[in-house]
């Protein structure tokens, strides 16, 4: 896929030509010539890429391969040059010294070497073009259009919030909903395994997740957890995920400790555990053996194959999902194909046309498979109705076999050029995993897939691309529920993921280490580590061309018992050398081998731009060699025992993102806080020093706390473009400094403050007009003029309060906020015993969560909360009263979800006297 290779390279050549215009006078013409050639070849490759699927022309395949190799060599030459002489990576005050040290002769030599390489690549590209014309067999094989419609060149979705693209549950599954609901809570005292089976793409996860998220289901069980994981994960990793959901806590436990703690958490409590992922028979038995026997408990498993019978102490219920019939197919297609931004008249015409003219075509093309239906709807929602629709169906009708593969190919080829690289990146990530949207966008940015356009930052462009993929139904957006919008999660269906992996390996986009065999890595440019048994095996190979390395493993602490068990398993399974070496020589030897692997990676892979190591142990401290990887833009080392980042990280003058969440890192070196290119910093209670550099590009600080010297009014003053700020352990001594700093943070969109005190300015400062999400945990210094809230926070969408001790008067002022859609009132957030929602208040509120055990009475007046669709009262006292005046539909839902709470509701007619 040409765009993933040539697109970022063209941008890099442009930057090189501009930034080094004076120093590279003799080379500049060659650079511009190469850039121009690549832009022309980019245009030809965009047409040739989809043609390779239709016309299996070997000459075109050779031409594509040679062009990619030439582009790779050009990228290597440019990166090598930047590595050696790009002086912009050093602080300005040292440039003179470095120039003296480097020497004029060295500069001339390096530039001459670059000039020779660029000229050779230019000549090579000319020969490739000449050979293409010379050996071309037929005009038809290359000139004929692949499809009779024009592929998309622009983004189809209008600017909107990502969560606005959430799709409703699959239609025509009401009978299966009832069957699963009955199997979960039919009142029988047995312990039951429920197997939901069906082929990939039939909607197993969608059905189970929809039922699982219903409050009535969760209230039926004392404990509930849903675990999502890559295929064939170990039982230990899966159980750890279950335990993490149950306890809502990050921890480092050995395998034996996980089993013990999980048993204690579930013992004597009726529980629901959902296993969403493919599990081997052996690991499945281990999972069931680790769960305690509790009458009325349920374990749900999703599987493509016929499920094996569980142990005798479990009752087994099987729910089989099949493809849709013609009517259900039409109904689902109509539900997904219409666009909110289109006129009602157009959408009505589409619905009528589907039912009248295209019903049979849709059913024949998709064969009733829900995945194929939603993919086809995602493709056609970008096509002109009805002209291009007919052309699409005519084309698909000619494909007599592998209809789903044909739909996937069309969906991929129809993407706008800039979007294909971003979509292909999912191949480097494990399937059936929830991926944080913000992490994905940061990696796209570091890879060079995103460029500022139309006045938007790279981040905004990335989120726009993400919305387009969601709108086309190529990836799934997970419901937020308790998550806030900055924690948006996406996932990709296994069939779509398999298609992307084939595409990615076809064009050498990424190498994946997922089995016992280690791929050839001498020319690999991206490496995805997905072998959970041998995490480090691939790191023993030299990878001089590597640009990105990614892993996604569970954090694990190995005990002596686990180590001996692993050794026996390794012998039995004839594992690879590095794993055997580590286990044979004990923990200390293992740590030495791991550190050696990481050091070798940093020394030999000098072109690295993205390091994303999740769950891969690197030792207590990153090697000092990290500072030599000067191209690095994204550094994430998470879910491991890392404690220290070396000062050499300050040399990473291109670094945009640092992520050390779920590690023991608290202090970052002083040099780090002076990197001017920083855009996003993620950690857990990182210490932010009193003085930082001029970080005008910084957009995210998550989460930070003051150092021993405290903050003053100047600490945050230069972070003028900060959009997300998460503060932890704010003492009362720092409240005033924060209040002053907030006056300068005029671009804040997300503000989270946890501490002993919270300044009233969070509700009274006009500088926070852009804030959309606010989470406060701590005593609020009540604003002296609460009437200012409406004008100071006109864009606030979500508000979460805990330990704030606000009053009824304050709640009344919140009710005036024009766009407030979500309000959470956690423990200690409210100081009165009676909470009243008056008529006309909170007219935009859609979700209300109340967790106030000290509350004695709740009043909901008629016409209050008119748009509320989700009301959760989580913890309440036995003597709580709920008085509802007039009609209130949400109360009926509350009654169906919680029978005990329903008994506390008193209805009355009419409005009380004011």
UniProtKB/TrEMBL annotation:
<dbReference type="GO" id="GO:0009626">
    <property type="term" value="P:plant-type hypersensitive response"/>
</dbReference>
<feature type="domain" description="Disease resistance N-terminal">
    <location>
        <begin position="6"/>
        <end position="89"/>
    </location>
</feature>
<dbReference type="InterPro" id="IPR032675">
    <property type="entry name" value="LRR_dom_sf"/>
</dbReference>
<feature type="domain" description="Disease resistance R13L4/SHOC-2-like LRR">
    <location>
        <begin position="598"/>
        <end position="874"/>
    </location>
</feature>
<dbReference type="InterPro" id="IPR055414">
    <property type="entry name" value="LRR_R13L4/SHOC2-like"/>
</dbReference>
<dbReference type="InterPro" id="IPR038005">
    <property type="entry name" value="RX-like_CC"/>
</dbReference>
<dbReference type="InterPro" id="IPR027417">
    <property type="entry name" value="P-loop_NTPase"/>
</dbReference>
<dbReference type="Pfam" id="PF23598">
    <property type="entry name" value="LRR_14"/>
</dbReference>
<dbReference type="GO" id="GO:0002758">
    <property type="term" value="P:innate immune response-activating signaling pathway"/>
</dbReference>
<keyword id="KW-0175">Coiled coil</keyword>
<dbReference type="InterPro" id="IPR041118">
    <property type="entry name" value="Rx_N"/>
</dbReference>
<keyword id="KW-0611">Plant defense</keyword>
<dbReference type="InterPro" id="IPR036388">
    <property type="entry name" value="WH-like_DNA-bd_sf"/>
</dbReference>
<dbReference type="InterPro" id="IPR002182">
    <property type="entry name" value="NB-ARC"/>
</dbReference>
<feature type="domain" description="Disease resistance protein winged helix">
    <location>
        <begin position="430"/>
        <end position="482"/>
    </location>
</feature>
<keyword id="KW-0433">Leucine-rich repeat</keyword>
<dbReference type="InterPro" id="IPR044974">
    <property type="entry name" value="Disease_R_plants"/>
</dbReference>
<keyword id="KW-0547">Nucleotide-binding</keyword>
<dbReference type="GO" id="GO:0042742">
    <property type="term" value="P:defense response to bacterium"/>
</dbReference>
<feature type="domain" description="NB-ARC">
    <location>
        <begin position="174"/>
        <end position="341"/>
    </location>
</feature>
<dbReference type="Pfam" id="PF23559">
    <property type="entry name" value="WHD_DRP"/>
</dbReference>
<keyword id="KW-0677">Repeat</keyword>
<dbReference type="Pfam" id="PF18052">
    <property type="entry name" value="Rx_N"/>
</dbReference>
<dbReference type="Pfam" id="PF00931">
    <property type="entry name" value="NB-ARC"/>
</dbReference>
<protein>
    <submittedName>
        <fullName>Uncharacterized protein</fullName>
    </submittedName>
</protein>
<dbReference type="GO" id="GO:0000166">
    <property type="term" value="F:nucleotide binding"/>
</dbReference>
<comment type="similarity">
    <text>Belongs to the disease resistance NB-LRR family.</text>
</comment>
<dbReference type="InterPro" id="IPR058922">
    <property type="entry name" value="WHD_DRP"/>
</dbReference>
<dbReference type="InterPro" id="IPR042197">
    <property type="entry name" value="Apaf_helical"/>
</dbReference>
